[in-house]
Structures are given as structure tokens and as C-alpha cells.
Structures
1.
Amino acid sequence: MEILDLPITWNLEQILDDLAQHGFSVIDNAYPTTFAHEVLNECMDNLQKFRNAGIQNGVQSHIRSDHILWIDTQLEIAQQHIHTLKILSDALNRAFFLGINDVEAHFACYHTGEFYALHRDNPHGKNGRVISTVYYLHETWEEDWGGQLHFKDKNDVWHTLIPKPNRIALFQSDLLHEVQLAQQQRLSITAWLRNDQTIW
Ligand code: OGA
Ligand code: MN
């Protein structure tokens, strides 16, 4: 089934306003519970394929210890989330002329004790990432389980966001942020709305 609209829980005006004013927005109860469970199941069914995100070209980085799986067309439920993000991208392009033309995404799993230290997803505009999005998949999250998304908004105000299930955090990819040490298994889909330049 082709979904042509954003889910009803997504208040587009609010999202646009939050992004314009603060550089971030939060969507709670993002999807119907049945869908949220399907994505969680797809994530869990594929956990054995996740790879250490800190290792690139055989070199281990110490700023992150999570495990990821890039989302391809085989991951059909996660693709529906990407599809929704493409509809959102069209709206963002109309409002802010961002030129977003691609969405890249991976599942992420933080085991107990894992974290992602302070970073920017698009430092100095070195890649095409415009907006970062994180959709939290685990079934429950308690206040004292750590794993918060801690970030500085566009007005230099710091925020701490609990990775509540079925919540989506959206923020400008140039903002400084970190994932604090998780004390339980923390599952998510990170997706970036990109404006890659086409070279003719
Ligand atoms: C990332 C990231 C934040 C989160 O994957 O780059 O910063 O809350 N994730 O998982
Ligand atoms: Mn990040």
C-alpha cells in the first residue's frame, strides 16, 4: 500500500516551527503500535547482521561503540519509515528550500554500556546530511536507563531527550550531540535527509 500522507500524529506545522525556531523537533507516538511492533521485530530478526559502527577500514574508533545495519530494500518494514521520511522531506523542501533528495538509514543497537560521544553528523558541511532523524524502537525505556540523546540546539541551549519508544527526534545535522551510555539494549533507526549535489 502506498502511503501518500504523513501519519496523523505528525503535526507538520509544529515540526516546521520547531525546526525553524530551535533546529530540532520531537514526534511522540509516531506510528500506530502495530507498525511500531513490526519494525521492532524486523530489527530483532536481523540483529545477528549488525556490525560494530566504530570500525572503518579495519580501524577501531573510540567515539562510538554501537552496532549498526544499513537499511536496504530487503528490509521492507523499515523501508516504510524511510518512505514517510521522504514525504516529510518534500514538505521541508517546500518550507525551507533545503533541496533534500535522498534518505540514508541504518538500524542501531546499543548494548548495555555502549554510547556515542559528542559529534556532529555533518561537520563543516562535509557531507550532504541536512536533517538527522532517530526513531526509537525498543518496547520500553525507563528514565534511569541512560541512553539519552543530549544535544545543543541552534540557539546553543542544551537538551536531554529520553529515547522513548515510538518517538522520533529530528535535528539539524550540524548540531553537536551525543548518546549517553545505555544501561539496557537501545534500538533505533537513524536516518539522514540529504541534499547530495548531482554532478553533471
Ligand atoms: C547517530 C546519533 C542519536 C541517537 O546515529 O549519529 O547521533 O539518539 N544517534 O541514537
Ligand atoms: Mn549523530
Note: The first helix runs from residue 12 to 22.
2.
Amino acid sequence: MTAGPVSPVTGDQLAPWAARDDRSRGRRHPEPAPHYRGQFQRDRDRIIHSAAFRRLEYKTQVFVNHEGDLFRTRLTHSIEVAQIARSIARALRLNEDLTEAIALAHDLGHTPFGHAGQDALNQCLRDHGGFEHNFQSLRVVDRLEHRYAAFRGLNLTFETREGILKHCSPARARGLGELGRRFLDGGQPGLESQLTNLADEIAYNSHDVDDGLRAGLLDIDGLCSTRLFGSQYETVRRLHPDLAPRRTVHEVVRRIIDRQVVDLIETSRQRIEAVRPEDIEAVRRLPEPLIAFSTDMQDQNRELKHFLHEHLYRHYRVHRMSVKAGRVINALFEAFVVDPRLLPDEARDHARELEREKGATGLARGVADYIAGMTDRYAIAEYERVYNPRELT
Ligand code: MG
């Protein structure tokens, strides 16, 4: 097949190995089929209407939300992932609606302050099973969003939940029934899940380059030591030698995304054609994922990731923010676990309910659910309200 524009893929045009809503493994609580929408469109819509989705706007990706208006947040990141993932899904005749739902939901369980927040919360919960953001995303859609009359959570389809749960420890997987099985017995999720996972990687590697340059934490010379950035930078400079620096960066970043997307589509197409699984169930039984980069692109990706780790995520300015974020999370956790009456009513009722079910571990989990749901600025404000005697509310 040659590269070219691809029209939306629906119904009979879907590849045999794509997810189909008429063959979905269904929802935990059976519901009548939606009018004028497919099952995965319904999932996407429920995700967009959730409170957790709106909070993504004020949660950090790498930079804390108030550092500047132009940096990515979890919301814009999720939208970028959805955009990239949908292009890949459509080109491979996979289910675009399901792909979009997974992409928009994949970060719902993220704590405030990015990875620093997650590490801190994981540490707080070390004696109570730890904290994993993927599992928390599933917890958000399965339990914590509490708004529909007939069920708890968003009651999403198996396929969307399968995509949200990217990683899972065996201990947790055992409690998840069918959904946890692949983490215990091996096997793969559907192709829509596999591709969204890699679209996430494409999105954050490229936008962290862009944001890192904008913040002045990365420089072009350093980035040119990576093949992925270096080769595209050279091309753009050759084609447009007089282009202003900001436009040059944008041109390079969009080419980096494009190179990766094209590589992923073409490599995956070959891998799928070599196996031609009968349906999504056959995809799930395979020992290896079918959606993958070429070996060369995988190496180039690893190189860029390594560069970002060394120069951006470990930059002292990012680290300072991470340390402060960790203190805020630790202090809030400590205060609420010691005296749950400091929690607002709804959060306290939730924590008490879990405490009745599982004692101290339940209480710790309930407090973690409250903290994980906070936006960056809410966490800082809550810290002030709990610890600063001048704040009276
Ligand atoms: Mg992500």
C-alpha cells in the first residue's frame, strides 16, 4: 500500500484484527446500546465529560502548571496523543473511536506535579500497596468518578479499560479478573491499545524537546548530538536557512513526529501482514506486540529519551520543583492520614468508607485518591490551608 490520505474507517472497512464494538467484551454493568453512537464513542464521550478529564488542564507534564502558559499540560498532552494515535489507527484500518477513548483517558490517574508527585505518593503508600498511575487511571474510570445513576464509575467497555491499563503489577492484576490476565499469563492487549502506548511516547518525546527549548533548559547544540533531532535540524536548516529560531524548532519537532509516525505505521503494517491474526482475540494471544517501530527508529528514540533524562528531567530547575512537589504531597498525606477530619466532607466519607473495608490500608488509599485527584495549584492551595496559620479556611 502506498502512503496517501486515508478516509475515516468504519464498520466493514475495519481490518479483521481491529476492535469492533459489535464484538466488544462489553461493560461490567450491561446497558442498552447508545443511539446514533458506537460503544467506543460513548466511552470517549463519558471520559470527556468526567471531572478527572477537566482537571488534566491544571496538571503538570514536566513543568509545573503555573510556570508558563505555553507549556504542555496533561490535557494538551492527552489531546496530542489522541491526534497522533488516531492518524496511526486510521492508516492501519484500526478502530479510531476506541483509540481516541484510550488516548484521552490514559493519564486520568496522574497525580499533581507529574512524576515527582507520583513518586512521592508511591513512597507514602509503600506499606499499603504503593501507587501506580496506570492503575489509578483505571480506578478513576471504574470507581472514583461517581456521577451516573445506575452504576459506579464510567462503566467503560473492556477494550477501553484494557488500553488504559498499560502496566500492572502481578499483585494488582490478580484482583482484576479477565482484565489483569495478560499481566499474569502473558499475551497482548488489542492493537488500538498497543498503538496508543507508542503514540504517547512519540508525543512526550517531541513536546518535551519543544518545551525544554522554550524554557531554556535544553539547547540546540546538545540536541543535535541525538540522531533524531540532529538529522531533522540539518534538513530544516538546509531547506530554510533564514527561518527564525522558534519556527525552525517547530519545523524540526513536527518532522520528528512525522518520521516516527510514518516509521510506526509502515513497520506495524508489515508485522501485521506477516501474521494476519484472525481477529482481536488472536492478537491478544500473540507473544509479541504487532505495533512497533523499526529497530533503527527504536534506537533513535532511545537515544533521544536518554538525552531528555540526562538534560531535562534531571536539570536542577526541574529537580528543585520536584523536591518541593514531593514535600507538598508528603505533608498533605501525613496530615490527612493522622487526622482524617481535616479532609473535606466528600473526601472524608470516601476515605472512611475504604477504612471500614480495609482498615489503615483503606484509609491510606482513600487519602491517596483525594491527593491524586488534585491539580497542581489545588495541591499548593490545600497545603497552605492545612499548614499556614494565616489561612483560615
Ligand atoms: Mg501520557
Note: The longest helix spans residues 245-275.
3.
Amino acid sequence: MPATPAWPPRSAPRLYVEATLGPDVAVPLDGNGAHYLLSVMRVRDGDIVLLFDGQSGEWAAVAEQVRKRDLVLRCTQQTRPLESVPDFWLCAAPIKKGRIDLVAEKACELGVARLVPVRTERSVVDKVNLDRLRAHLVEAAEQCGRTALPDLADMVTLPALLESWPEDRVLFFADETGGLTMDQCFAANPGPAALLVGPEGGFTPAERDRIRALPQARPISLGPRILRAETAAIAATACWMAANGDWTRCETK
Ligand code: SAH
């Protein structure tokens, strides 16, 4: 017997939209999103596109009124509900452009709920382009199948972050001068949790003392080598996800 083709088709393009999705909602699209669908993915009238808005799950939509530079996508059916992601924040000092972009992309793929840029004393980069970071989060969410976008916080200074730190959230602090091993620490603190990673220049001794003084802080070591900030952020996030996140739920794709 011939296999029933998958529906929605596996090849259906997936796109984040700002509109609120629901039954029969028509989403007019132009600009970059339309360019991607029309010129890159060659979407035609009647084709199926998967849409998500970060709050209403994922919807199959039919392409209508396809023109050269714009089209309408009409939602027909919800294909997935809004997911719940592990309660894990990544607090990262801003680092050079391509590298912080990589951190945003990987954090989204790994299932991080919230990304918080944190300015520290040795931050070489003292500004973040939130629009660009958000674009990387959106692109990663489109690619990896997330239905919920990670929250992107405004940049805060390290003292401000620590002052308002929630009482019930453990702060794993990647300390290049040494700390607990991750397996000791992650298993004992399932969440809510967060990871704090320093900039290229590391934390100052005063900052380190200040972080360690926070009762919710747990200094962790990522081994004997000094990792680049982006490697530290991605590797430790992956380890936490493997111990406490949703990697243990096996789903057949
Ligand atoms: N310039 C610093 C290193 C900074 S590495 C030095 O030479 O000491 C950037 C950030 O990655 C650090 O602030 C820390 O948060 C994290 N990191 C890197 N290697 C680490 C390790 N082995 N253990 C824990 N954290 C590490």
C-alpha cells in the first residue's frame, strides 16, 4: 500500500509572523517574509506554509493572492499547540557581533526560555543590537521548530541583575577560576535556573565576589581549559538541558 504523504508536507516552509494566529485568520505578508516565501521557497497559490506567532502554537496556512512581492496566508488548522520550554535563562555578557549572534541562535535551538544580555566591567562590547539579536532568535526558532520564541531582555548591568535576582531561581555562574562540577550541581538544582557567563575578559575579582555572595549563586567549572565565552555559554546550556531540560522526552519526528 502506498504510504500516505505527510500532512502538512515536511517541505512546508516555516515562518514567524507578528500577527495573532487563529482559525481562518488571514495574514497579509510583504517585505522579507514574502521575499523568502516567493523567491527562495517558490511558494505558489494553494501551497501550505507553517506559521507561528510565539503565542498561539503553529498553524498550517494556505497561500492565497500570490503576487510578485506579496501574498496572503490563511490559517486552516493548528498543527501544534504552544510548547512549554524548560525554565532556563541564559545571562550572557555581550561579546563581539558574530559571536553573540551565535550564542542567540544556539540558545534558541537548545530550548532557552530567556536571553539576558549583561554588561560587566570587562565587557569589550558595551552595546547590544537587540533588533539583530531578535532576528537571530526568530530565524533559529523558524529553523528548529520552536513555537515559543525566547524572551529577549534589555541589557542590564551585573549589579542590577544581582540586585533583582528572583529568590527561587538558581544562578549557575561559569567561573573560570573554578567551582563545582556541573554533574554535582545541575542534578541537585532542577530549576528554575539560569546560567551566567562572562565576557572575553572574564569577570573581575570584585564581580566574582559579588556574584558568589548571592545565596542563589552556584559557581561552576567547565573544566581545566579556558573556553571562549560563546563556547562556555553553549556547552553549559547543553549540559543543563541534558540533565534537567526536555532532552529526556523522546519524540519521534
Ligand atoms: N579572559 C579570561 C577568560 C574569560 S572566558 C581569562 O583568561 O581568565 C569567558 C567566560 O567564559 C568566563 O568569564 C566564564 O564565564 C566562562 N568560562 C570560560 N572557561 C571556563 C571554565 N573553564 N570554567 C568556567 N567558566 C568558564
Note: The chain has a mean pLDDT of 94.
